[in-house]
UniProtKB/TrEMBL annotation:
The keyword Transmembrane helix does not apply. This is Dehydrogenase. Pfam families: GFO_IDH_MocA, GFO_IDH_MocA_C3. PANTHER family: BINDING ROSSMANN FOLD OXIDOREDUCTASE, PUTATIVE (AFU_ORTHOLOGUE AFUA_2G10240)-RELATED (PTHR42840:SF3), NAD(P)-BINDING ROSSMANN-FOLD SUPERFAMILY PROTEIN-RELATED (PTHR42840). Residues 2-121 form the Gfo/Idh/MocA-like oxidoreductase N-terminal domain. It comes from the Bacteria. One of its GO terms (molecular function) is nucleotide binding. Belongs to the Gfo/Idh/MocA family. Keywords: Oxidoreductase. It comes from Actinacidiphila oryziradicis. Residues 129-249 form the GFO/IDH/MocA-like oxidoreductase domain.
Length: 352
């Protein structure tokens, strides 16, 4: 198959290498807002790859069989819509968009066209999270009563990224919201979120926070917490703990987990901690693209469609409202807003 890669920043470059190496991808087209960067990425990959100056070439009839979107977040919704209009199966890194209106509009076009949209929630393809899901659904831990999730970056992203990221809840914790549902099978029904700024001023200037904590209520009766920070100097720390009446299990606890015990007799220091998301989740990123290719070529079930992404965005949006208003927020409150937007999209073709 012929695949177009749209955007070759950090994650895009990684995905391009994965696609280039895949046996079922006979040609890879690379497009980027910066034609020079696209050409350089293509040159590094070598044979079987050609760069394009603009994305317009990608959407010409018959140019490609599928697209992979890893461009800047602000461009996702429009590229998803263009792919849907062209009838192209699409893989897109999260999020669809950073607000409900653009998200609902993009999903409307995908569903109207009947095309495939697979979203990049890579933790669903990580071996540890798979094992945790099997343990929960298989009854190993008994009744789940408490879950603790965390996403901690070793160091902040560039300042220019923050105003376009959607904020800490939509950019980082959205992965925790998705994986909590996927692993436990329970819906998040209510959140209470707080945030803090103790680091660089550019977070506050963008209306964002650099550290956040959320208390979540699940519809099966369990309680959960989700925390995140941009300043975890010990290393990149991504974990999930699941506590039940029969057992407690954890994802992300291994020899590279950047946590040092101060208990007597315990080994001190982590000689090779995880340093970033590509370091921590490289196999999962490869697996999600392999799944996308199978969705397109073999017709297997979509492992993470646009509605899955929307569910996680509902929770992130509820967190933003909760932080702003300093109150618990039911996720149903956000779902009602989305329903109104969807009605406007369906009746008029665009969100008003």
């Amino acid at each position: 198959m012929r695949v177009a890669q749209l955007g070759v920043g950090r994650i895009g470059t990684f995905h391009a290498a994965t696609l280039h190496a895949h046996a079922d991808v006979r040609e890879l087209l690379i497009a980027d807002a910066d034609p020079t960067r696209a050409a350089e990425a293509a040159a590094r990959l070598g044979a079987g790859t050609r760069a394009v100056a603009t994305v317009d070439e990608v959407f010409e009839p018959g140019a490609v069989d599928a697209v992979v979107i890893t461009s800047a977040t602000a461009s996702h919704a429009e590229l998803i819509k263009r792919a849907a209009r062209a009838g192209l199966p699409t893989f897109c890194e999260k999020p669809i968009a950073i607000d409900l209106a653009d998200t609902m509009a993009a999903l409307h076009e995908v569903e109207a066209a009947g095309t495939i949209l697979q979203m990049g929630f890579h933790r669903r393809f990580d071996a540890g999270y798979h094992a945790a899901r099997e343990a929960v659904h298989g009854g190993r831990i008994g009744r789940l009563h408490t879950a603790r999730a965390l996403t901690s970056d070793m160091s902040p992203p560039p300042p220019q990224f923050i105003p376009l990221s959607g904020g800490l809840y939509r950019d980082c914790l959205i992965h925790d919201f998705d994986i909590l549902h996927w692993v436990t099978g329970q819906e998040i029904t209510e959140v209470y979120a707080i945030g803090a700024n103790g680091g660089a001023d550019f977070f506050r200037e963008a209306g964002d926070v650099d550290t956040a904590a959320v208390l979540l209520t699940l519809d099966g009766g369990a309680l959960a917490t989700a925390t995140s920070t941009r300043y975890n100097g010990a290393g990149h720390d991504i974990r999930l703990e699941l506590c039940g009446t029969a057992d407690t299990i954890a994802v992300g606890v291994d020899a590279r987990t950047p946590v040092t015990s101060v208990e007597r007799g315990c080994a001190t220091g982590v000689p090779n901690p995880w340093t970033g998301f590509l370091d921590r989740f490289a196999p999962a990123y490869r697996a999600e693209l392999a799944a996308f290719i199978r969705v397109v070529t073999e017709g297997i079930a979509n492992p993470c469609d646009g509605r899955d992404a929307l569910r996680a965005l509902f929770v992130a949006e509820a967190c933003e409202v909760s932080r702003r208003d300093r109150r618990p927020v039911a996720v149903a409150e956000i779902e009602e807003q989305a329903a109104k937007l969807a009605a406007g999209t369906t009746s008029r073709g665009v969100v008003q």
